Automatic annotation (TrEMBL):
Source species: Wolbachia pipientis
Gene Ontology molecular function terms on file: ATP binding; pantetheine-phosphate adenylyltransferase activity
InterPro entries membership: Cyt_trans-like, PPAT, Rossmann-like_a/b/a_fold
Domain of life: Bacteria
Annotated ranges, domain Cytidyltransferase-like: 9-138
Subcellular location: Cytoplasm
A GO BP entry: coenzyme A biosynthetic process
Protein name: Phosphopantetheine adenylyltransferase
PANTHER family for this protein: PHOSPHOPANTETHEINE ADENYLYLTRANSFERASE
NCBIfam families linked to this entry: coaD_prev_kdtB, cyt_tran_rel
Length: 164
């Protein structure tokens, strides 16, 4: 029997997961029959957390919130991962206009590599427009309050990291 379900991949480095990512995940779940959150090995960014910790943080939060999504880490090309998971769409969040250029190029490259896959962009909700993992890490490293940007479990991990 063939699987007719619409499978979507929401990829990212999630270093660490923020309320911005969670907003996109919740909304993406409504668009597909099955959502796979793909945690990417970070080749272009110097990640603060290794892929295992990033994946664990995402798993913990997604389960805590009762969200029905699979969480799988991957290295290599996103399109290869998407194909392996039998996904037909890649979902990405768009914040300000500044995200557009990079995201537009990435969707074009992915389309050239695998034309069967479409990218869907979801605009970040008003409350999460300006959250970024980099800002969160910087604020935490300066002992600032990050409660408005990340869940409690992530906040603890960031402060623990600073104390090491
Ligand atoms: N709300 C708030 N913040 C958001 C957000 C939202 N809706 N969506 C993204 N962000 C922020 C993140 O916090 C992060 O901030 P940072 O740049 O300060 O770290 C940033 O926007 C993007 O992070 P993330 O969503 O985790 O994605 P990414 O850009 O790190 O992920 C991959 C990029 C993994 C999808 C891409 O590198 C990839 O596909 N890699 C695999 C290799 C490959 O196939 N390469 C060819 C593709 S062209």
């Amino acid at each position: 029997m063939t699987d007719k379900r619409k499978i979507g991949v929401y990829p990212g480095t999630f270093d660490p997961i923020t309320f911005g990512h969670i907003d996109i995940i919740k909304r993406a779940c409504k668009l597909v029959d099955k959502l796979i959150i793909g945690i990417a090995e970070s080749i272009n960014k110097d990640a603060a957390f290794d892929i295992k910790s990033r994946t664990e943080m995402v798993k913990y939060e997604i389960r805590r919130l009762g969200i029905n999504a699979d969480i799988i880490s991957f290295d290599g090309l996103l399109v290869d991962f998407a194909k392996k998971q039998r996904a037909s769409v890649i979902i990405r969040g768009l914040r300000a206009v500044s995200d557009f250029d990079y995201e537009f190029q990435m969707s074009w490259v992915n389309y050239k590599l695998l034309p069967e896959i479409e990218t869907i962009f979801l605009p970040a909700s008003e409350d999460t427009q300006f959250i970024s993992s980099s800002f969160v890490k910087e604020i935490a490293s300066l002992n600032g309050d990050i409660s408005k940007f990340v869940p409690e479990s992530v906040k603890r991990k960031l402060y623990e990291k600073n104390d090491m």
